[in-house]
Write a structure and sequence with these properties.
Elements lengths: L1 H6 L7 H32 L4 H8 L3 H8 L8 H10 L4 H12 L19 H15 L5 E4 L5 E4 L1 H6 L15 H7 L3 H4 L3 H19 L4 H11 L2 H18 L10 E5 L7 E8 L3 H4 L4 E7 L18
Antiparallel strand pairs: 1-2, 1-5, 3-4, 4-5
Helix pairs in contact: 2-6, 3-4, 5-6, 11-13
Length: 314
Amino acid sequence: MANLAAVGRPGVHPRRGRERPGRDAAVRGLVRTTRLKELIRQRREELGLSQDDIAARLGIGVRAYGNRERGLVKAWTDRKLLALAEALEMSEQQRFWLFRLAVDREPPRSWEPLAPAAMVADAETQDYLRNYATMMDAVAFPAVLFDHRWDVALTNPAFDALFRDVRPHPTAMPRHNLLRFVLFHPDAHTVLADHETSWCLPLLAQFAGALEAHGDDPGLLAVREEIARDPIMDTALRQGVPYWVRSVGPDVVYRDGAERPLRHPDPRWGRTTCRLVCETPWALEASGFTRMTLVLAEPRPDPPRLKALPSHSR
């Protein structure tokens, strides 16, 4: 009888055995959450910073940051975790454990912006790049020089002014990588008007071509992995882009001459359009660079206002 009691009725699993997997998973989840809270809090205290300080670095409210430190975030995303790691100045090992404890996997493939001098091998081209930067600074319109993975080598003051109100982001700043900014920065739509159709789709099409030509490039593969974790963007790349190119023609993929809408932070420009003009000297094109200038449409003058008539003439 004792053995029957232990086994239970035919066809019915013991109650204790049925609940153990769920209970064990709950215990493991609780342990991970506790260790995650300790990791975040201890790292902040190591830096000698308050919750307000980290919240300011993240561009969020102190209550929202407090939820991260108290383990109250229900759905961690790579973007949130990378931003938190950046704000807490985490080492590679600390970032590894942040991801392991929060989402039980390794962090995405790392990406760091290269310094302009590190993007070219020979000293002669580096010297040329420094002279070219001086020339670009004199251009009145936003201009940027980038390589095949959209890593930015040079920008001019007009380009920096266009994106001056963009909040910090760990991997998607416009001065670091143009592709990542367009695809992943939450503020991209505030500058790039009609963001999805006028900017994301063409750039995704260009990215697909770059991936085909440079399929083993770590930077491009890291972007592909990040796209794969976003179901909407992944579907857009695999299905939306080919359909869109077939519908409107392959010419839309090219940058040179395309007109795109913008929202310039300077009220003198406001909502306007720009024409993408690609002009790259041979010396830089041979090193894999593309120079793109956003030629802004001239602002329209305000219509003349009618002067009010003097009161005695009415």
